[in-house]
Design brief:
Chain lengths: 271, 303
Amino acid sequence: MNNPLLSVQDLSIEYVGDKTDFRAVDHVSFDVAPGEVFGLAGESGCGKSTIAFAISRLHKPPALICGGEIMVAGRSVLDLDANELARFRWDEVAMVFQSAMNSLNPVLRIESQFHDLLKRHRGYSKAQSRERCAELLKLVDIPPDRMRDYPFQFSGGMRQRIVIAICLALNPKLIVMDEPTTALDVVVQREILQRINELRRELGFSVLFITHDLGLMVQFCDRIGIMLDGKLVEQGTADQIYRAPTHDYTKKLWASFPSFHGPAPRQENAQ
Amino acid sequence: MTANPAIVSLQNIGKTFHLGAHTVRGAHDLSFDLHSGRTLALVGESGSGKTTCARIIMREYIADEGQLLFHGTPVTDNTPKGLKQYRKNVQMIFQDPFASLNPAHTVDYHLRRPLALYRRDLKGKAVTDEIHALLRQVELDPELVAPKHPHDLSGGQRQRINIARTLAVGAKVIIADEPTSMLDVSVRQGVLELLNRMKRDLGLALLYITHDVATAHYVAEDIMVMYGGQILEWGDVNAVLSNPQHDYTRMLLSAVPNPEIRFDDPQSRLDPTAVNAVREQAKQLHPHVKTAGPNHFYRHTAA
């Protein structure tokens, strides 16, 4: 790929133990183009979240990157010093966590949580932050006059949208979403992802999307990588992963959940 | 509907929660039956009243209106003895397999307790034999699993222990509240198969509560769609899913992830204003029941 926004090359990450080390990510390479939505699918423990955390260097010991490279817009993330890293996070890469709706500070009004970020990264005054906050809330279909409310006054889906609005505050180039809608029900999930899809067309950011729901992933992503035991076993366009999976594990994943739409689960090669 | 008589029936059950001056409708005019050898799926969003419904059946909540029948007799005995007798027959499987087993005790202990409480005829070695038989029934190796603690087991294995525990009591009715939503996709199907097999072989009546319409389609014969404490549409699972009548059911089904339709496709777009309008409408009281087929009904605001 020419000029990928995110390039992960030969990445290996180990969890260091007393006696043995556990290799959670094993020589993984993939690229994400500007404006592209790339999906990582796999079961719990396959290393997909470890990669998500490593991209903004949020992984904590005992996790250790023991090889490979992560490049964002041509810069090596692993070589950034502490100051550069602080600027890099939010400004270039923002992250939405699985329980993101619980990652808002419960005792601060929504506007202060935006101000916190905008003041630190852009030096905004309270009035400027409020203005930007209103714009961002409108983007995610939340009435701006609710910025003086506290997180508990919003539903789970609305809180998740507020977190996404905060992620968009500095126009990052990449948003990493680790199971962003797993805790939400289907209608809310659809509303949120549909909005993100529209926004990425409008604003041009890329998304690294992590989920275990392959059907949802095919709907939303341009390309998909399938992970098994720390290895990326297959990657391809969403259409190819759906219609013509080549790796046995991908076929097994498709066969392993009952589908409501479309053809009955494919039983071939399923164990 | 079916030859088997209902084990548990709800008749016009209502429940309102009071938070100071504020009231929340948890359940309104719930009526349905659970039959031996059949699975009834209850689907709906979070906050739609699914769990309230489960708690009323488990008699953790006492309904404000209507009555709960067990084998046709109204259940009124709320003494500990009456509850124990009822819960010998009606058991629940919870969503979180990590929180519903005591981390300090072995699998053997978890199964020995219900046997000691509900199967007092079993003594000595018969208890151990029964524990092993239960573990085999949920497709676990007794020798290997019985001495283990919950943290040694995967989520799927733990959920199987929870199922074995309901069988140990001798339950005839199982209320499964999102039993697979915290499991990996690849083990989900195994647990659902097991529930299906138990329903067939042991003639259990199952209430399968979920927000995942796809799995409901897979395990259930009948389905109910709930919103705002009301059951808006119910009946044969294929009839309801292939020919939904209520606007809310249609919206819920259209939001189920479908790899055939991409978000970029403008036809797939769910309009947020329309979604809110459907939700507002669905919140109204729907006093009229209309018939869409031999076993397919929906509620309507107007006659």
